Amino acid sequence: MKKIMLLFGVIGMTFSVNAQIQTPQPSPFSKVEQTVGLTEVSLEYSRPNMRGRTIFGDLVPYGRVWRLGANANTKITFSTNVTVGGKELKAGTYALFAIPNENNWDVVFYSSAENWGAPQELDESKIAAKVKVETYKLPMDIETFTLSFDDLSSTGATLGMMWANVYAGVKFEVPTDKIVAASIDKVMNGPGAGDYYAAAVYYFQEDKDINQAKTWMDKAMSMIPKPAFYQLRQQSLIYAKAGDKKGAIELAKKSLKASEEAGNLDYIKMNKDSLKEWGAK
């Protein structure tokens, strides 16, 4: 009996040791990141090899949905809205599928990206964009399936797909000009209320030029249609630190009223304490 138990123990140890052995994946995972204009784009996919097999028309049948790689879905992520095939895609992550044919592919950007592998049939409601692209014969075989960002410019790029002796590319456009124009307009029009407010609070907290903080805070509040109780509170503290007790009391009273309307007990107490400290009547 002891010998039998010992044998099972040895077998168990063997399986335990074997379970810890690491081996390389036949289709290794890859992540590619690329800045296109001002848009961050990333690809996540697994890369199968040819291994002497006929790929298109055999391993990857014509006319059927292919996951554009191996293992989990191939995913592409855009940090901004982009345009593919004349259709706008919202910023986010999409699964990439292809339906290869002999002379062209249909490339699909699919809104559901979490399933494993390609569905037998695509749900039309989840097709964010579908683009037909030509294929080109390469002068040599590409052993490992490869996705790349080609023909980079400030306004777009081409998502390149290579395997065996076939290349296909999907062009996409990024809103660089729109982003830059909005940035230029913001800078040329001067700082916004949030910029002035943040600068004033920073100067107050870091014991910098309190008069400059007061000027910035006044500018911020003049740009806010209805200042919140916490904003009025910050303004009152800056006024008090700048030596303007009368102005601080007036602002604290406004903050107190707004705090009471909002039902914020913490700010009600803080404002009452400050009013008492500053000698309000």
Number of helices: 7
In what order do the strands lie side by side in the largest sheet?
1-2-3-6-7-8-9-4-5
Oligomer: single chain
Helix content: 25-40%
Q: Structural class, judged by helices and strands?
A: alpha+beta
Q: How many DSSP E strands?
A: 9
Overall form: elongated
How far apart are the first and last residues' alpha carbons, in Å? 94 Å
Whole-number total of structural domains: 2
Mean pLDDT reading: 91
Question: Uncertain spans, ≥5 residues at pLDDT below 50?
Answer: 13-17
Q: Biggest sheet, open or closed, and with what strands and sense?
A: 9 strands, antiparallel
**H/E element string?**
HEEEEEEEEEHHHHHH
Strand content: 25-35%
Rounded to the nearest angstrom, the radius of gyration is 31 Å
Helices and strands in order, then pairings?
Blueprint: H1 2-19, E1 29-36, E2 39-46, E3 70-78, E4 82-84, E5 87-89, E6 92-100, E7 104-110, E8 127-150, E9 156-173, H2 176-188, H3 193-205, H4 210-222, H5 229-241, H6 245-262, H7 265-277
Antiparallel strand pairs: 1-2, 2-3, 3-6, 4-5, 4-9, 6-7, 7-8, 8-9
Account of the protein in words:
α3 crosses α5. The protein is 36% helix and 32% strand. The chain starts with a helix and ends with a helix. It has 281 residues and is an alpha+beta fold. It has a 9-stranded antiparallel beta sheet, with no helix packed on it. The protein folds into 2 domains: 153 residues, no CATH class; 87 residues, Serine Threonine Protein Phosphatase 5, Tetratricopeptide repeat (Alpha Horseshoe). It contains 7 helices and 9 strands; from the N terminus they run αβββββββββαααααα. A hairpin with a 2-residue loop joins β4 and β5.
